[in-house]
Q: What sequence folds into this?
């Protein structure tokens, strides 16, 4: 059967630009929706695309965090007058359903990256008076919202005189931007030093294609931010972490305004705060390098931010002493020693675990830290049963960044594939501290040089004055 494709304008938030491709791709796959590009996308905040059904657009928007709005596009031109010509020729049968005597409407004027007064906006709006509207205007709760958008680029402090592009269309749906505010770390009951920002947590849950009833694991759970996002999208969530104090809400408070933690701070309390407690399975103190799950235990998704060793330790239980044993009398009170858990081993364990414990088709989404100058896709962790399907960069500084990797499990591993060696990965932590030490040394040398120059100048001035 022939599908009747219509053109839509997807308007995105202008942050984490690279991530929007991975997010939309994941959601299209989650909902089995087909979308075609009507215009090749670039770094502008909008895409012009086609969908076969308006329900598909609504479904996509109902889960997208990077999306602000979706419009059915009636016209797109380089200037307002050409747009008017286009709209005057827009097929009547496509407009008619929205311009009925019993259908209320409003027209909004949006100007992207350039400010206009209300009066100027009303003047722009009045140029659309030829539209064959019939119903009453309703500014608060209209049946139909039409939007005229002027796009002045993305450089707010120096916009051009005239817009680069103008658009007109019918609003269809908005994305989930309001969740970013709802889950803000500022108002969250329990946070830690490395709590993940809500927008990125939600993007991760979307890239993992979390859906109602899924079982989702974060093996480096920390304060549980990723569990909140996964639970919001319907997942039953479980976490593990080596840090007993963190899981019991007993680490030093992360807010400078807070002297000591409240008694009831915990991941469960966060879930309660967001009415998601029914999605919370549990959290458990566990060293990820020591597997404890039964072999047949399977997860629908794994989302995690492993430690990079900068703001939190990369540790595992172990000792460097040879033939170390604990005597019977000390066994019950013994606290195991910890040793360094290198990045290569962390990612090897994570991918082996995912290859073993994800359902086929399930996804593992994880952050991976890199030095930008060293970055090379061949240096990423790999496993033959996991296909890398997205890889987005978030810059952390001029020299470092982290990449959000999304893998899908394509098949069950063979015996041999459950005991693979890691591919050598640059030890981010080691290099980070070497570079930091070099930078500090250079700074100390520069400061010493300035002090010496000042001393010599002072000495010279004193000699001249004498
Ligand atoms: C980057 S933090 C995760 C933050 C978390 N996404 C959040 O939103 O709070 C990494 C976590 O890994 C934990 N970790 C470090 N080594 C571990 C190990 N061997 N096994 C399990 N967890 C470990 C740390 O205690 C820390 O909480």
A:
């Amino acid at each position: 059967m022939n599908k009747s494709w219509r053109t839509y304008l997807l308007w995105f938030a202008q942050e984490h630009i690279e991530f929007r491709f991975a997010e939309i791709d994941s959601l299209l796959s989650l909902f089995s929706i087909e979308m075609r590009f009507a215009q090749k996308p670039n770094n502008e905040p909008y895409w012009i695309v086609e969908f076969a059904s308006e329900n598909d657009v609504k479904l996509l928007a109902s889960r997208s965090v990077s999306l602000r709005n979706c419009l059915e596009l009636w016209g797109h031109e380089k200037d307002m007058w050409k747009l008017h010509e286009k709209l005057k020729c827009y097929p009547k049968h496509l407009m008619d359903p929205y311009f009925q005597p019993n259908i209320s409407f409003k027209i909004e004027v949006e100007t992207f990256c350039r400010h206009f007064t209300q009066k100027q906006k009303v003047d722009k709006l009045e140029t659309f008076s030829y539209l064959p509207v019939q119903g009453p205007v309703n500014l608060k709760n209209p049946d139909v919202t039409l939007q005229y958008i002027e796009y002045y680029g993305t450089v707010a402090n120096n916009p051009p005189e005239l817009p680069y592009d103008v658009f007109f269309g019918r609003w269809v749906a908005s994305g989930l931007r309001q969740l970013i505010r709802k889950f803000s770390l500022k108002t969250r009951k329990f946070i830690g030093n490395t709590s993940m920002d809500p927008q990125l947590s939600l993007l991760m849950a979307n890239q993992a294609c979390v859906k109602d009833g899924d079982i989702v694991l974060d093996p480096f759970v920390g304060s549980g931010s990723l569990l909140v996002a996964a639970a919001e999208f319907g997942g039953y969530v479980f976490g593990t972490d080596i840090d007993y104090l963190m899981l019991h809400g007993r680490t030093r408070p992360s807010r400078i305004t807070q002297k000591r933690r409240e008694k009831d701070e915990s991941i469960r309390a966060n879930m309660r705060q967001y009415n998601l407690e029914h999605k919370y399975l549990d959290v458990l103190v566990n060293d990820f390098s020591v597997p404890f799950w039964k072999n047949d235990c399977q997860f629908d998704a794994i989302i995690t931010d492993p430690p990079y060793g900068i703001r939190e330790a990369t540790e595992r239980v172990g000792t460097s002493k040879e033939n170390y044993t604990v005597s019977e009398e000390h066994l019950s009170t013994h606290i195991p020693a910890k040793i360094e858990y290198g990045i290569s081993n962390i990612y090897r364990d994570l991918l082996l675990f995912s290859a073993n414990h994800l359902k086929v088709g399930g996804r593992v989404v994880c952050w991976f830290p890199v030095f930008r100058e060293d970055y090379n896709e061949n240096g990423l962790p790999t496993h033959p049963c996991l296909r890398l399907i997205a890889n987005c960069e978030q810059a952390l500084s001029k020299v470092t960044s982290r990449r959000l990797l999304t893998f899908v499990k394509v098949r069950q591993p063979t015996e041999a594939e459950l005991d693979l060696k890691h591919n050598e990965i640059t030890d981010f932590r080691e290099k980070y501290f070497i570079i930091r030490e070099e930078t500090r040394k250079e700074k100390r040398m520069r400061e010493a040089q300035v002090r010496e120059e000042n001393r010599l100048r002072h000495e010279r001035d004193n000699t001249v004055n004498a």
Summary: The pocket of S-adenosylmethionine is lined by residues 192, 194-196, 220, 222-223, 225-226, 241-243, 246, 287-289, 305, 307, 312, 314-316, 341 (CB under 6 Å). The two ends are 101 Å apart (CA to CA). The chain has two domains: 6-176, 182-426.
